[in-house]
Amino acid sequence: MKKLMMIGKVGCGKTTLTQYLNNKELSYKKTQALEIVGDVIDTPGEYVERRSYYQALAVTSVDVDVVLLLQDPTDMTFALAPGLKTMFQKPMVGAITKVDKVTDPKQMDRARKILELCGAEPIFTISSVTGEGIDGLIRYIEDLDTDEK
């Protein structure tokens, strides 16, 4: 698998997806610092929520192939910076997580708009609990030509 850096707000599903991709038992734990699990770098949500940590994200991204920006559609707050992609010299793919918890289609539309504003493309819909959409996301990332980015 290509090396990924997952970024997103606290509670958006970065650690759960990291566990899923590495065939680990799904269990919630608060990520306190950068964690490397296999080919995935799991970042604390505070790194993207507080601009004073942006430098840590930019430096960490140097060693990855793809930045994966996650958005929880049930989170009604907006804390991601528009144009966030410009901070990275790597492709930034978006993932709307927790699709198994969506109760209103407007939640999906809102999450998609947030990821688009940040510059993520394409955008996948996934669930780390059911596995929905993850195969397509991984296939896309594996097929991505990151040597030219």
Automatic annotation (TrEMBL):
Does the keyword section mention Manganese?
Answer: no
A Pfam entry, by short name: PduV-EutP
Q: Which Gene3D superfamilies would you find in this protein's record? A: P-loop containing nucleotide triphosphate hydrolases
Q: Which UniProt keywords apply?
A: GTP-binding, Nucleotide-binding
Q: Name one GO biological process term.
A: biogenic amine metabolic process
Q: Which InterPro entries match?
A: EutP_PduV (IPR012381), P-loop_NTPase (IPR027417), Small_GTP-bd (IPR005225)
| Entry's Gene Ontology molecular function annotations | ATP binding; GTP binding
Q: Which family does it belong to?
A: Belongs to the EutP/PduV family.
Which protein, by its recorded name, is this?
Answer: EutP/PduV family microcompartment system protein
Per the UniProt record, the source organism is Candidatus Onthocola gallistercoris
Tell me the name of the encoding gene.
Answer: eutP
